[in-house]
Amino acid sequence: MRAPLDSSPDNPEAAAIDLPGGNTRHAQATRDRDLVCRDFRDALGSFATGVTVLTTLATDGKPIGLTISSFNAVSLDPPLILWSLACDSPRLAAFRHAGHYAVNVLAANQEAISNCFASRDEDRFDALVFTPGLAGVPLIEGCSAWFECSHEAHYPGGDHLIFLGRVQRFARGQAADPLIFHAGRYRRLHSNSEC
C-alpha cells in the first residue's frame, strides 16, 4: 500500500487511497461535487441498514410519516435514539416542532409500506392499519419493533437535521425478521444452516 498523497488545503485534489485489489481512486474535493456526493452515497449504501418509518402528528392533528434508514441507538441510560432528515424535506417543519414521534421498525414483509412512505403521496395513512400511541402518534401494525419518543433535541448536520429522541416506550412485534436495505435494494435475512 502506498503512502497517501498530501491532501492539505494547498493540494485538495490529492486524496488518493489504495483499495483492495490494487484499485486506486482519486476523490476530487472541489471538482464535480455531484459526482462526489453520488459516489459518497453509493459507498454509504455498502452499509446494510434496517428500514424505519417515522410517524408524528402535524399541528392540525393529521398523521404524517416518512421512510428513513438513518435510525441509530445513542444511549441505554437514558434511552436515546437518533435519526436525521434532509433540510429540504417538506416534512421537516412538522417533525422539528413535534413533541413526540414514533420509530416504526419495518418487518421483512412491509416493503410496500416503506415504498408508500418514501413516495410524495399525501394519503399515506388511508389504507394503513395503525393504532394511536403516546400523544396520539401513529404506530404501524405488524412492525418488528416500535420506539415511542419525546423530542429531546435537534442539531444541524450539513444538509440534514439530526434529531435526538428520548424513548418513552418501546415494544417488539411478532415479526422476527426486519426489512433490510443494502446497495439501493431491499434485502431479507436468511439463516445459514451450515453454522
Would you give an account of this structure?
The chain has 195 residues and is mainly beta. It has 2 domains: 8-44, no CATH class; 49-183, Electron Transport, Fmn-binding Protein, Chain A (Pnp Oxidase, Chain A, Roll). Helix content is 13%, strand content 38%. It is built from 3 helices and 14 strands. Strands 5-4-8-11-12-7-6 form a 7-stranded antiparallel β-sheet. Strands 3-13-14 form a 3-stranded antiparallel β-sheet, with no helix packed on it. The protein has a two-stranded antiparallel sheet with strand order 1-2. Strand 13 (180-182) and strand 14 form a beta hairpin. Residues 1-30 are annotated as: Disordered. Keywords: Oxidoreductase. This is Flavin reductase family protein. It comes from Candidatus Accumulibacter cognatus. One of its GO terms (molecular function) is FMN binding.
Task: Briefly say what this structure is.
Residues 44-188 form the Flavin reductase like domain. With 195 residues, the chain is mainly beta.
